[in-house]
Design brief:
mainly alpha
């Protein structure tokens, strides 16, 4: 993101400030040694203890700030998950990204920002954000979810070749997480989209059912149900698709679901 340079400058400034403080502490202790007549051993021990204490205090304060900031980001995330308000969520999460210099929060914020853009239907922007993440710092289910998000966005954009290429490259890794409670839903959704775009509707249905069974987030469940509606139309069950969309229409849904409902209804009117 465009604020990365500002973050790096902020981190550099903080680093220089701490270096200045360590030098200042050393100078003060040296003056104490000179006027008090401290032995060299005492001087060294005192220097180590004071600087170590300062370092511990800095680490504790930094950690407490990070915890507080992450809680704030989690409360912002509820705007997307509970209110399903993508515009408000994206604005507040982008503001948080600018305000918080913590590198440890970067992946968390960017991942959720990407989810917000996906829910808005801006899959290209979502993937641009995801590609800013240093995937080498991710592992296990987090890494599988990362690949799953990118693959799903490719399918949503209609970039089927790119989606399948990445899916084939990472298949041996991500298939180990198809039953994972944290990322299994998105992994199965990727396999479902792969099958559906290939015209293999029975296999696509199996993967959609599996994605649905593992899903614990309402926003994602709405997206899966919308994919079910499209599958039903492909299978010729227009009435079933209409029932699915009527159910979705009874509650607030994110823009990408609303967009797909409008497209599907226009298609039904044109074709049936």
């Amino acid at each position: 993101m465009k604020d990365n340079k500002k973050k790096r400058r902020s981190s550099s400034f903080i680093g220089l400030f701490h270096l200045f403080m360590v030098v200042l502490i050393g100078a003060v202790i040296t003056l104490i040694k000179r006027y008090v007549g401290m032995e060299m051993l005492q001087y060294v021990i005192m220097m180590i203890c004071v600087i170590a204490t300062y370092g511990i205090i800095v680490v504790i304060i930094t950690e407490l700030k990070t915890i507080k900031r992450k809680k704030k980001c989690e409360s912002i995330l509820r705007i997307l998950l509970d209110e399903k308000n993508t515009d408000k969520f994206i604005k507040e999460m982008e503001d948080a990204y600018k305000r918080y210099p913590d590198r440890s929060l970067n992946n968390y914020i960017i991942t959720n920002l990407a989810a917000g853009y996906s829910c808005r239907g801006n899959y290209e922007k979502a993937n641009e954000l995801l590609k800013e993440i240093n995937s080498k710092k991710l592992k296990d289910a987090d890494l599988a979810a990362y690949y799953g998000d990118i693959i799903e966005n490719y399918f949503r954009m209609g970039y089927v070749d790119e989606a399948r290429k990445l899916l084939n490259q990472k298949n041996d890794f991500i298939k180990m997480y198809t039953n994972n409670q944290n990322c299994g839903s998105v992994i199965n959704l990727c396999y479902a989209l792969d099958s559906l775009t290939a015209g293999n509707f029975p296999e696509g249905r199996v993967f959609l059912e599996k994605a649905k069974s593992l899903c614990t987030i309402d926003v994602t469940m709405d997206i899966i149900n919308m994919d079910f509606a499209k599958l039903l139309v492909a299978e010729g069950d227009v009435e079933g698709a209409e029932r699915e969309m009527q159910t979705l229409s009874k509650s607030r849904v994110v823009p990408c679901v609303r967009i797909e409902m409008d497209k599907l209804r226009k298609f039904i009117i044109a074709q049936f």
